[in-house]
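anyone seen this seq b4? input:
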Amino acid sequence: MRAEILRLVDQIHREKDIEQEAVFIGLEAAICSALLKKWGEEANVQVVIDRKSGEVTATVGDKALSQEQWREQLGRLAAQTGKQVLFQKIREAGREVVYLEYAKKLGTIVTGSVIRFEGSAIVIGLGKAEGYLPRSEQVPSERFRVNDRMKAYILDVQKNGSQVKIIVSRRDPRFVNALFEIEVPEIKDKTIEVLDIAREPGHRTKIAVSSTDANVDCVGACVGVRGSRVKNIREELFGEKIEIVRWDEVPELFIVNALKPAEVVSIDLDYDTRRARVYVTPDQQSLTIGRRGQNVRLASALSHWDLDVVAVSEDDIQRLKTEDIDEGKEIGTLIGIARGGADADSALKERAPGEAAVKAIEFIEIETVPEAPAPGQVPAEAPAAEAEDVSAP
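predicted toks r here
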């Protein structure tokens, strides 16, 4: 009998992939339930199975029952009850195994096949469990049929009766992030950081990235050789447009990068309301706003600034380019020097005496302001230097 119990535990462990301890607990509960049928629900019945020898020790109150005694007292009905309890406990243990397995995968991507539709939801076979893709987490432009393979992002893992319900998504922005982790090793090893994602599922996504290694180009690494990496992600998203945006600690520069491919003339920021006025030429206005406002809307979500796009004339452009920044506002200098290769923190230190920054963003000019000329002298013409544009392509 003891060998039979050990063989049974091992068999269930292997076939159901359930921990042996869970099977032992199930067997103990099954025998205990069967004895309660014999002695009554009020009886104090305890059953313990030795994990090494398989020996069963059963007690009713203070009375210990030998193996022959408790087996003899188990009638057919009690044995059947014990069998039902055993199967129930095994199912519960199996559910717990599946729950723990997928709870560890929360926030990752799983791959499966469509096995059926439940109303507007799609059910995906994941092997031991089923993924549930509700309509609210689907992309409206995507279409799937039974047996189609798909990837999805695990949002939640729930215990639902005797089943485990795995809620997945294809429209959550974190799904895009997880796809980039698969395609771009530099993201997985933290060399490149994904700082934010703005997405309109099925249409367009902007993803802000930054590199922790000065020798690694964050945009180029995400795009891949000839666009191979981003191409694989676009194919998984049924052709959704993906734009890699270089993050910048200077808000003006980051907003400019986020609005690409549009070209910006100048930006004014209101820090109190977090509203930015973006100046563009008339021919860039529609590109800046995008189709149905998509470009400016995504740039606003990515930068966390409310953006107002304003078209300006050539005269206004010249005024914006030559308007000195008020005393104490050094952002123009920061941008100009940063684009020339220096970091923003050292910008003020590197600024030569007498330099005044102007407010143009697309190309920053640093104008040297000479000292006042002596009487009778003709003032020298101030030279200008154009900073390198290092914004994301």
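The first strand starts at residue 45 and ends at 49. Residues 76-103 form the longest helix (28 residues). kinda curious what u guys think
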